[in-house]
Amino acid sequence: MKVGLFVPCYINQFYPKVAIDTLELLEKFGLEVGYPLNQTCCGQPMANSGYEHLTGSTNELFTQNFAGYDYIVSPSGSCTLHIKDHLHSDEAPAEAKNIRSRIYELTEFLTDIIKIDNIKASFPYRVGLHQSCHGQRGLKLAQMTELTAPAFSKPEQLLKMVNGIELVPLTRADECCGFGGTFCVAEEAVSVKMGKDRVADHIKNNAEYITAADMSCLMHMEGILKRQKSPVKVVHIAEILNAAMV
Amino acid sequence: MSAGKDHAALAQVFNNDENRVDWHDETLWFVRAKRDRASHGIPDWELLRETASQIKHNVLSNMHNYLVQFEENALTNGIKIHWAADAAEHNAIVLSILKEKGIDRMVKSKSMLTEECHLNDFLQDNGVEVIDSDLGERIVQLAKEPPSHIVLPCIHKKKEEIGDIFHEHLGTAAGESDPQILTETARQHLREIFITRRAALTGVNFAIAETGEFVVCTNEGNADMGAHLADVHIASMGFEKLIPQRKHLSVFLRLLTRSATGQPITTYSSHFKKPRPGQQMHIIIVDNGRSIQLGREDFRNSLKCIRCGACMNTCPVYRRSGGHSYHTAVAGPIGSILAPNLDMEKYADLPFASTLCGSCSNVCPVKIDIHDQLYKWRQVIVKNGYSTKTKTAMMKGMTLALSSPAIFNLSGKAGRLALRYIPFAVNNGLNPWFKQRDMPTPPEDSFTDWYKKNRKGEKP
Ligand code: SF4
């Protein structure tokens, strides 16, 4: 099985550790992982701003980069969802279609494809899990509170395998953090208020760390935590799952 | 879009008072939580939603036939039917009915359609006094404001503010904010209205093609009191309010109020089938852009809406920006996909007033793909040129940078210049990100740099 690692643009530039942990984690499970060096971005920032028609070139680039892999794995629910829903290619339509059906967010890949049942990791802290909307409602990584259906959560399932971790409950299990891509600047006031409220829910429930399967939500919440000079830190789920045993 | 009137600007004003935002958010979340308890208690909830969605799908696909059937049956029942192509025609019809009877005072029960048509202003300009009889509607009417929510029209007002309004208009004691006393005052005031008005206008929740009757749902019974006492009952409905058969009501009535307020059913679900002896009953069937929306395949589903307001209560943006920030009669997620159909330029901002979190689509009792439609409207709005030049230039710049691995990686060690092309940094220079948030600390190396140094690298 050959896995292509897709690292979203902002993770590549700002959070390389998340990508490194993702890579190492996949390798821990004996996978052959390739990282196409020419990758940039999934095109979501343009598409969600109404400029999907400008994403032709990023789409072609993405398709070239990831054609030929059995699976494409990414530590971001939102970018994964975008590719799954919107990747098209005029030059290689069949490849694009193939990629759409073979791209997975990291936690769903671990639970659904390679079906791991234990992880050698340790993270002895109180952690609040933020269910990022695109992953949760878009990729169905977890059940949402709106539906009348049995509960499940793929990220939580994995976190529960980590040594020493204490998951804290939240008052609003799946409220949006307010990042929303360009929404975070176009609607600055509401975005920040949502982020503050989301962070406050974790703090109120005594979390030391906030984790998620989407770094973009965490980046937004981190910006707010830092401004508040809060001791609470953000950590991507890949970092926890790859945290060394103590 | 007129300057300073877009959602972001109005929401920012709303956010100047953080305590009020917290209160607004908590109040609506309380309703959403009640909705959860009510819906989760019904094991076949998801089946009900699917059924309702399919019934409405059938209606939208056979609109012409159901409208003809409804009209025929309603006429047989002795109801007068009027067709209005747009808001102006609707308003003119109402006025002509009143004029014919020499009526210049009317009582009205809640109808978002008449808000959409700006009926109150029109009638007032034509010398007709209109009193809204739904308590919330009456409060915002006295405050000279539009409703901010389709089910809870004055949810943006605290009880102290309502006390002040009642003190000014209805003579309660200054500083009185006891809900019981205020409600009783309103009750007495409205009773006086009900018994003196010869014409009553109501909305329509469901119009049944099979029988030519319509159903009006209220918790206060105000629609009934107005309509039963008046000589003339006018019912205004958008044509999408149709359902094929009476038995289908069981599906919708179970969904409607549970979604709206968490109640099992509205206090009054009143059927109106024929005028009582001596009474006149009119139904005005309104298009006002609906047939255009019906013709837009991507947006047609929005006409399934039964106006429960659940999408607003669940919407994290609505809760923190207030209904008035949407500057349209129907606010929130559903308003944001309905409004651009009416006026794409004026409402070009609304599809962007969302994080696309998807909660609205999943709470919706008729399964409207609201957040997907928001995404699609964004594409339509930009393609039709209702985006700013700056934004377009920025997007083009971003596309260029992201299409080229060379440019993207160029930033290298130079302080992560690529920052400029990162999604959230769209508006570099005066980036609103920094106002209330810190930036991530740029690392020495990008992941690509690290990979090149530490691993063999997949050939490009
Ligand atoms: S779109 Fe759905 S949730 Fe929103 S008001 Fe209409 S029926 Fe209710």
What is the fold's blueprint, element by element?
The complex is a heterodimer of chains A (246) and B (460).
Chain A: E1 2-5, H1 9-14, H2 16-28, E2 32-34, H3 44-48, H4 56-66, E3 71-74, H5 77-86, H6 93-102, E4 103-105, H7 106-113, E5 126-129, H8 133-138, H9 154-159, E6 166-168, H10 183-186, H11 188-204, E7 209-212, H12 215-227, E8 233-236, H13 237-241
Parallel strand pairs in A: 1-2, 1-3, 3-4, 5-6, 5-7, 7-8
Chain B: H1 7-14, H2 18-40, H3 45-61, H4 63-76, E1 80-84, H5 87-100, E2 105-108, H6 112-116, H7 119-125, E3 129-132, H8 135-142, H9 159-170, H10 179-196, E4 199-202, E5 206-208, E6 213-218, H11 222-229, E7 232-238, E8 242-243, H12 249-260, E9 268-272, E10 280-286, H13 290-295, H14 310-314, H15 316-319, H16 332-342, H17 359-363, H18 370-383, H19 389-403, H20 405-410, H21 433-436, H22 447-454
Parallel strand pairs in B: 1-10, 2-3, 2-4, 4-7, 5-8, 7-10
Antiparallel strand pairs in B: 5-6, 6-9
Helix pairs in contact in B: 2-12, 3-12, 9-10, 16-18
The structure holds iron/sulfur cluster (SF4).
Protein name (chain B): Lactate utilization protein B
Keywords (chain B): 4Fe-4S, Electron transport, Iron, Iron-sulfur, Metal-binding, Repeat, Transport
Region (Disordered) (chain B): 435-460
